Amino acid sequence: MKKDQTPPDRRTVLRIAAGIGALATAGLLVTEGTGGRAAAPGAAVRGAGGAPGRPAAGAAGAAHHRARATAYRLQPMTTIPRRLRRIRPPVREHPFLSLPSTGRTMVLTFDDGPDSRYTPEVLDLLARYDVPAMFFVCGEMAAVNGDLVRRMADDGHVVGNHTWSHPLMPSLAPSRIRDEMGRTSEVVEELVGQAPLWYRAPFGAWNRHSFAIGAELGMEPLAWTVDTLDWTEPGAGTIASRVLDGAAPGVVVLSHDAGGDRSQSVAALRNYLPKLLEAGYTITVPQR
Ligand SMILES: [Zn+2]
């Protein structure tokens, strides 16, 4: 059903990766690498050379603020609230595929949820090992699983935007893309008090409208480095092997906590997460 696909061909990926490297060097994407947790609100961001003196956004801590109703999604850019203009990133031409490899850090991402059948156990496992992750939620799933979205934020995870209904964005008019992304940002903000700072295109299908609208909504685009292809249900052992074989500094792992039977994805996480930690990896989330 819902699944994400490996982005284009290898040459394109390498070309994109080179661009990402330049962005990372400029300090536009940085990690907080100590202790495996997200930085405290207001903490300095290491290597934030692209925006001198800018404090961290503090993704985790904002979770406790209750939402104010906002209606920015359908408004022209000039009327975006000041706080969103302040964090509005540049319009990218490619998504980020990895984190700068400043150490043995990796990012785990879970797409398409929340799903009450699988997300709670993913959250339990992450809590057991005290590591943060990123959840790219679909608005239609978040709207009916609000308690799980709140738990994500309360547990210190990053809640990203994966559109409302998981469409193929390049097939949509810009107004529909804005609606898919804007509604999702709204529901997340209503639930956790902060709109997403990151988004991921369904199927890895990005286009220039989604980059422009994502930036307008204050979000950076994040793709992935290692695709577990867990949606093909290849077996928990195979999923875990793909993560462990692909493990390297800066790697972003794609898997799913919804969109079908994700019991293999959960079982795989139970297998590979302690092994990554034993291998010396710090599981982290990007800071903005
Ligand atoms: Zn997806």
From TrEMBL:
UniProt keyword annotations, A-Z: Hydrolase, Membrane, Metal-binding, Transmembrane, Transmembrane helix
GO cellular component labels: membrane
GO biological process: carbohydrate metabolic process
Ranges for domain NodB homology: 104-284
Biased composition, class Low complexity, residue ranges: 53-62
Any GO molecular function: metal ion binding
Superkingdom as given in the UniProt entry: Bacteria
UniProt-listed InterPro entries: Glyco_hydro/deAcase_b/a-brl, NODB_dom, Polysacc_deacetylase_ArnD, TAT_signal
Residue numbers spanned by region Disordered: 39-64
Transmembrane segments: 12-30
Name of the protein in its database record: Polysaccharide deacetylase family protein
